[in-house]
Each structure stands twice: as C-alpha cells, then as structure tokens.
Amino acid sequence: RRPPRSTMGRGLTLLLLALLAAPAQAEGGAAAAEVKIEVLHLPEECSPKSKKGDLLNAHYDGFLASDGSKFYCSRTQNEGHPKWFVLGVGQVIKGLDIAMMNMCPGEKRKVIIPPSLAYGQQGYAQGKIPPNATLIFEIELYAVNKGPRSVEAFNQIDKDSDRKLSQLEISQYLKEEFARDGKKRHPTAHDEILADIFKKNDHDGDGFISAKEYNVYQHDEL
C-alpha cells in the first residue's frame, strides 16, 4: 500500500514542527549491533536508502518478545494512515532509529530491540510495556523523503538566497502554511510561533537562523 496522499504538504508541516522542536540526537555506533534485523522483503529497486534526517512514512506493529502479545499497531491509529517521522532524531525509540537506517521504500523488516534501546528498566505503563522488555517490530516502509531540515527545505524559505533565514522569511512561510491548512487560529498565534522559532533556533541571537543553526540533523551540507 502506498502513502494515502502526496508527501509534499505533510513535509512542509513537519518542517514547521521541526523548527519548533528541540530535536534529540540519537546515536548509532556500537549500539547498532544490539538491534537484530531480519529483512522480510527487499524490492528490486532500492533507492533512496534511508539515512539520518530523512522523513519516513511507515507502518509498524510492536510485540513483546516474552509472550508475543501485540502492544502497538500503527494501522489502528490515525485512521489507519502510515506514520510520519524524522529518522535518527529521537522521534521514535532509539532501537527503531537504528533499525530503520539504510532501509528502502517497499522494504519489510522484522527487528528485535533490547530494553536498553527501548523503554529500559522503567518500561512504559501507558503503552503496556513492562520493565526490561525486549521488543519485536514488524516494519513496512513506504516512502523516504528529504527531511524537514534538508537543503531543499531551507532554500524554499530562504527567498533571497543569502543562506540565512530572516524573521520576514519565516513569517511569510508561516502565513503560507496557515493558509494551506485552512485552520482557524487566534490572531496572536502567528507572532507567538514566530517568536518561539527564533528562541529555539537563533542560538547566537543575531536575529537570523543561519544555515548551521538550521541544519541540526547534519545529514546535508548547507
């Protein structure tokens, strides 16, 4: 099954969310060996392969390794639409960030994730995951797209191509995004969101979001 609609609009919305979020940095390295990956299906054409910072569209089911019981099914969430998330920045558990690297559209994987890369000693009571639980996920990846902090996304906002985002450029982007989704918002919402974006991204306080400040995922060169 393919994504239910074009990825472009969703990607721009996630761009806004990424600017508002303070992304966590997920580490791979030695921990990657602790995630066991079994490829269930590999399409003949495998391009592009997923990498850190990409915007992914996928379905996945989660099971407890101890008894095989299912604790999560993305097909029963959000009217059955595949989930969207940015890979490698902590939007999912670390084990999934590792397990879905170098994956291609149409690929299916079964992965086993140890507690240290899932919910650890605390577990996750709300998700019915006990302490020290090893998790199994069956994943089907539908799409791999340039992520919200990509060069393309930056250039789309940077209208004057000076390699930094001004308040005017971000403001215009917000107006376009608000007009696109058509939702009613309080008159102060625009200014509040604009201020929040610069508070979280303008680290040197010069009134601009530079390419370096913007590209926190380090998956492209800006």
| Tally of separate helices | 6
CATH names the topology of the largest domain as Chitinase A, domain 3
The biggest beta sheet is recorded as: 6 strands, antiparallel
Low-pLDDT windows of residues: 1-12, 22-33
CATH architecture of the largest domain: Roll
Apparent shape: elongated
User: In angstroms, what is the radius of gyration?
Assistant: 19 Å
What string, H for helix and E for strand, traces the elements in order? HEEEEHEEHEHHEH
Question: Alpha-carbon distance between the termini?
Answer: 34 Å
Q: Report the top-level CATH class of the largest domain.
A: Alpha Beta
Average of the residue pLDDT scores: 82
Estimate nothing, just give the exact number of structural domains: 2
Give the percentage of residues in beta strands: 15-25%
Helical residues, percent: 25-40%
Kindly state the number of beta strands.
8
Secondary structure class reads: alpha+beta
Pfam family, one: EF-hand_5
Organism: Eurystomus gularis
GO cellular component, one term: endoplasmic reticulum
InterPro entries: EF-hand-dom_pair, EF_Hand_1_Ca_BS, EF_hand_dom, PPIase_dom_sf, PPIase_FKBP, PPIase_FKBP_dom
